[in-house]
Amino acid sequence: MDVTNGMGEDDVDEETYGENIDGDVEIELEEEDGQSLESDEEEIFGEDEVDAGRGSDLPTREPFSSGGSGEMHAAATELLQILFELCIAFMTEEFRDGQPSSSILVYYSGVLALQGTGEIFRTAKLFTPILSQLIYIQRLLFLEYALPYEAYPHIGLEE
To answer: What are the Acidic residues biased-composition ranges (predicted)?
Structure first.
């Protein structure tokens, strides 16, 4: 199979082929003049945000505005703590009648196994990375629950 489609070897940019999780082939092109895609990132995101992502000494932006940020920060902190408690509740939910399918988390992982329109399940090769990510996040949440880095006063968890 000729990848160049009738073009000369000099006319083709360097290409890197990779397969993403859905099995689609991704093509990454580098421009011939040596210009990288960084300029495109700067146009889309702005130079400050791109530079901040590269570890420069620029201050990072806070997710909340400075006006009235005390109330907003307190509300966001409370929301995150309640969300943390909800995640722990899902992970520690007991099965009804010994049936794992009665657990919301098991049901959710089953929904994650569906592919596309939901008519077929993903193959083990495609589903295993998704499942391992879910397990890894659960391990991190259990670790934070067992040995909290900071106190969670809204849910009654001490440091």
So the answer is: 8-50
